[in-house]
Amino acid sequence: MEIKTNTDVLNADGKRIGRIDRVVIDPHGRKVTHLVVKKGLLFTREKVIPVDQVKPVNENQVILKEIGDSDELADFEEKDHIPAEGMFNPQGEPPGNARPVMWYPHPGVPTWGMGSYPMYRAPQVFVRTRRNIPQGTVPLEEGAQVVCQDGEKAGKVERIFSDPDEHRATHLVISSGWISKNKKLVPSVWVDRIEEKQVRLNVGCDVISALPPFSA
Predict the structure, then answer these.
(1) Does residue 16 surpass a pLDDT of 80?
(2) Pairing between strand 45-50 and 74-75?
């Protein structure tokens, strides 16, 4: 199975719902578990698709087996806004008192520190981000940098080949250059470490350079 970033993703009815933005992979077993799909142009959202919901793909499109609506998919990231304790306690009342009634201004007017109740400070809120992917997996970003064992940069990840049955990544296609792309097919056994923005190899760049050019 070939997985390429920016590939169109179609639902079970053949309607486009987005494009592949990331590939979620287990860095230890090299198993691809999910695809992250970005939908929308101006206001984008990222959705997670389990790979077992994907039909055999080509480099032009990915078709889902059963999912008909992108709303059926989980968000890639969810944010919880957690208020700090005592943030509605500007005059030192003991905990447990009723929270004061807050005044809401007209649109475009700052709420906190102005208007009818200037004594109330802006609430302190902590944001906790959760990702709906298996623990220990890595959402490999589009165009992640590939770095050789000697520290030199070999190129960027362009696509991933995986076994269609076990979904284990077998090869990476990396590309370098701006106008004339130089592409190489790298076995996954040469991968030492996978991070979101970077893939580290256990071979030197001289080994990568000696590989024949890859052509789809």
Answers:
(1) yes
(2) antiparallel
